[in-house]
Structure formats: C-alpha cells, structure tokens
Amino acid sequence: MDLPVMPPLQPMLARSVAAIPPGMQYEAKWDGFRAVVFRDGPEIELGSRSTKPLTRYFPELTRALLDRLPPRCVLDGEIVVARGGRLDFDALLERIHPAASRVALLAGTTPASFVAFDLLALDDDSLLHVPQRDRREALVGTLRGATAPLFTAPATGDLPTARRWFEEFEGAGLDGIVAKPPGLPYLPGERALFKIKHERTADCVVAGLRLHKSGPVVGSLLLGLYDASGTLQHVGVCAAFPMRRRAELMEELAPLRMDDAQGHPWAGWTDPQAQSAARLPGAPGRWTGGKDLSWVPLRPERVCEVAYDHLQGDRFRHTTRFRRWRPDREPAQCTYEQVRETVRYDLGDVLSGGC
C-alpha cells in the first residue's frame, strides 16, 4: 500500500459541548465503530479509532468497498449495523469474534454498512490540509452514485435543520449531532470538533459496587431498574468520581454491605443459566477477557439519580453520570417506565439525504 495518507492514522475527534454552536457544518453522530478506510488498488484496510485493524471482521464490507470506492482513496466514517430501520450497536459488537467461521456467518446474517463523512486522500493527493467545507464537497462528488452498503453522511449548514435532526434522528438509533468548523483542516487525533449528545436522567437502585483498582474505595456503582414483573435488572454503572469522593462513598454505603450475595436480587450472577434469564452484573464476554468481574452486594435500599445518553435495549448504552442521592424515592419506584422511549425514525430516511 502506497497512499498519500498511510495507516496507522488516528481520526480527528470531538469534545462535548452543551448546545449546538452556530456557524458550523452539522452531521448526525453515528453509533457504531469509527473507522478510517485505506484503499490502494486491490488492497484495503479498515483502521479503528485506536488504529487497530478491523478488516478481518467485516469481509462483506471490504468486498463492497473495493467495488464502490475509487482505486486510491482514504475515507473517515463509521461502520454500523442496522436492524428494523434503526442502528443496532449490540449486533455490531457481536461482529468482533475470533472465530473465522463465526465472522463468515455474521457477515451474512448481520451485514455492516459504512457511512462516510470525510475524505482524507484521493489519488495522489492528501486532503488533510484542505478546509472542511472543501473536503465535504470532494467527498460528495467522489461518492456520488454509490450504493448500499456505502453511504455519504447527511450534512447541513442550517442550524434549525441540525436542531431538528438532533430531535428526530435519535429515533433511528443515532447519538446526537457533530458540529464541524467549515474552515478546519483535518487534525488527526485532536479533539477539534464539537459533539452534542442527548442527556436524560433516571432514578436507579444502587444494588452493588465494584472496588477501584487502586484499593478499597468505590470504583463503580452498579445500577438497577425494576421491570414489569418486579425483577431488578442490572442496567449499567456510574464510575466517574474524584478519588476523595470514592472513599466517601465507601463510608456512606458501608451500612448496606452484605457479607455475601445470598438473598440479593442478583444472587445468581455466577450461574450462566441465571445470566441468560436476566440482566445480572458479572456476565463474562469477549470484551471482559481476564478482567475481575466480582462485585460487592449492597442491600437494594438506596436510590440515586444518574444522567444517561440513551438506552440500548434494556441497559444504558454508556457509563452514566452520578447526579445526586434521592432519599425521597423508594427503590420500587425505579422502573423502566420512567425511561422515556424516543419516537422511532426510519434509518433509511436519514441516509437518503446523504448526497
């Protein structure tokens, strides 16, 4: 491979801001795997955000990109999997599997797509120094007429349209809005863009904790919500605390600590059969590796308010942010009913505006 922009390359990133800023190019924030595509004739490589290769996990996508991309180019974008007219991040996670036979099976049952939102090189020219507005124009022209599973991300310079997208596109599984300064060159690895994500709050039962890697202080709080049958389901964690606060939390929660999990709603967390029947902490997987999954059970009597981006199925998609204790709330009030479900929006309608 001999391209004007070569792997490994860290993509340009975004930092969080509270509101959509004016005077920008606006795009949807995709909920998938960030990927930079390098294509040089018959050679193609998909590089992850951390620059690790993703190529082997998406054989159907690499074949399609070889068929649809110019002979020599580098694109920045997102690998996504869609089901039922919306993005499905859980299905995308399943695509990362060590067994070649499983990779081949999933390539047929849950095929991936690539949504391109930047053009970094074309033929013998690097476009890293080119302003964002001109790279966007080149991207649209280069991919004009491309067909699924290759898409050009919709973009607009109209702030009211961006605000509407922010509200509507969440129903298709998208994550918010990315705002890009029109005159900005491409800055690999730098947080030079802006992201605006949905944030909501929910009251959750604190039913356990994990210890911090540094010692006997709180590493994360394990959160639960009651489902319609009255079963406490593990829905996620909150973990971003200053070290002093971690020690304070350990003292605050000491009266709730249980000697063991007997009698706890998640007592069967080590039983694979129980794990398959409900959401319990400590479920092993490809992503946990040799990580210590043990946790300290707490009597499920305290409620905290957390901020979250969105729900993925029956769990929080990302780590939540602790807001406050809620002594005025009973644990039984912490149900899935309080979690607002977004109005569905068809992903095809999002992608149809790509060019």
Structural class: alpha+beta
Under the CATH scheme, which class of the largest domain?
A: Alpha Beta
Q: For the residues shown, what is the average pLDDT?
A: 91
- Give the low-confidence spans: 286-290
Tell me the distance between the termini. 29 Å
Beta-strand content: 25-35%
Oligomer: single chain
Catalytic activity: ATP + (deoxyribonucleotide)n-3'-hydroxyl + 5'-phospho-(deoxyribonucleotide)m = (deoxyribonucleotide)n+m + AMP + diphosphate
Keywords: Ligase
Organism: Streptomyces gamaensis
InterPro entries: Adenylation_LigC-like, ATP-dep_DNA_ligase, DNA_ligase_ATP-dep_C, DNA_ligase_ATP-dep_cent, DNA_ligase_ATP-dep_CS, NA-bd_OB-fold, OBF_LigC-like
Walkthrough of the structure:
This protein is α+β, with helices and mostly antiparallel strands and 355 residues long. The protein folds into two domains: 13-197, D-amino Acid Aminotransferase, Chain A, domain 1; 200-283 and 292-338, Nucleic acid-binding proteins (OB fold (Dihydrolipoamide Acetyltransferase, E2P)), CATH 2.40.50. 20% of the residues lie in helices and 33% in strands. It has eight helices and 20 strands. It has helices spanning 59-68, 89-94, 100-109, 132-143, 159-168, 243-253, 272-277, 347-351; strands at 13-16, 25-28, 33-40, 43-48, 72-80, 82-83, 86-87, 113-122, 125-126, 150-152, 155-156, 176-180, 191-197, 200-212, 215-226, 232-238, 296-308, 311-312, 315-316, 321-325. Strands 3, 4, 5, 8, 9 and 10 form a six-stranded mixed sheet that branches. Strands 1-13-12-2-11 form a five-stranded mixed sheet, with helices on one face. Strands 16-15-14-17-20 form a five-stranded antiparallel sheet. A hairpin with a 2-residue loop joins β18 and β19 (315-316). It starts with 12 loop residues before the first strand and ends with a helix. Mean pLDDT is 91; it is low at 286-290. InterPro entries: Adenylation_LigC-like, ATP-dep_DNA_ligase, DNA_ligase_ATP-dep_C, DNA_ligase_ATP-dep_cent, DNA_ligase_ATP-dep_CS, NA-bd_OB-fold, OBF_LigC-like. Belongs to the ATP-dependent DNA ligase family. Residues 11-197 form the ATP-dependent DNA ligase family profile domain. Residues 216-329 form the DNA ligase ATP-dependent C-terminal domain. It catalyses: ATP + (deoxyribonucleotide)n-3'-hydroxyl + 5'-phospho-(deoxyribonucleotide)m = (deoxyribonucleotide)n+m + AMP + diphosphate.
